[in-house]
Design a protein that fits this description.
Largest sheet: 4 strands, parallel
Structural class: alpha/beta
Number of helices: 8
Strand order of the largest sheet: 2-1-3-4
Distance between the termini: 27 Å
Helix content: 25-40%
Radius of gyration: 16 Å
């Protein structure tokens, strides 16, 4: 935590022997130089590329695309930047990637069952979030995602597993200041809601 702490992202990756990072974010964050320039500088030559394709509806199809990029570019770490949607997509992507199975096979299974595969710890990609809202997905053992259902609609799925906890993360006030106050306020109440629901939710 601290102003300018995003500059320590590269050191955080080095501490986990990670050399090739893919940033995962939404289009708006990806186009925001006040966020992305410090992230790029912090990662330095460990940054492979930026995937700016997440959206608030957190589609599993987006997580599949992240997995494809991971495999094509030999990525060994994910750096989700922004709000909870990007962090959840990155978390689900590391679960999907860990199976080692072709994306098409995983996609078919998820479409049929609505369930995500189990995490293979040996192949897990570590997560190094740089959040810009207060929703709390950055420090969580759970992630939600939207998957297609057989009727042509969509339904919620997710993962709850202690092993998806972030390897390290940075809370940089300068990044939070790039987010509109109305969005910050909404995310803060979302975080409070999660805290209350955790008291009676089944996984806890």
């Amino acid at each position: 935590f601290g102003r300018g702490s995003v500059a320590d992202l590269g050191d955080a990756l080095a501490g986990h022997d990670c050399e090739r990072a893919l940033v995962v974010c939404g289009e708006n964050v990806g186009a925001n130089e006040a966020v992305m320039d410090p992230v790029r500088d912090g990662l330095g030559d460990r940054l492979v590329d930026v995937f700016a394709g997440t959206s608030p509806d957190k589609r599993v199809e987006t997580a599949y695309e992240v997995v494809r990029r991971v495999r094509e570019d030999d990525v060994d770490a994910l750096v989700p930047v922004g709000a909870g949607s990007s962090l959840d997509v990155a978390t689900v992507a590391t679960v999907l990637h860990s199976t080692g199975r072709p994306v098409a096979d995983i996609e078919a299974d998820v479409a049929e069952t609505g369930a995500l595969p189990a995490l293979d710890e040996a192949a897990r990609l570590p997560l190094f979030p740089a959040p810009t809202t207060f929703a709390g997905a950055d420090l969580s053992v759970a992630a939600g995602i939207s998957v297609p259902d057989p009727d042509g609609g969509r339904r919620a799925a997710g993962v709850v597993d202690d092993r998806v906890m972030s390897a390290a993360l940075v809370y940089d006030p300068a990044l939070f200041e790039t987010t509109p106050e109305s969005v910050l306020a909404g995310s803060a109440f979302n975080g409070l809601d999660k805290a209350v629901e955790a008291l009676y939710s089944a996984p806890h």
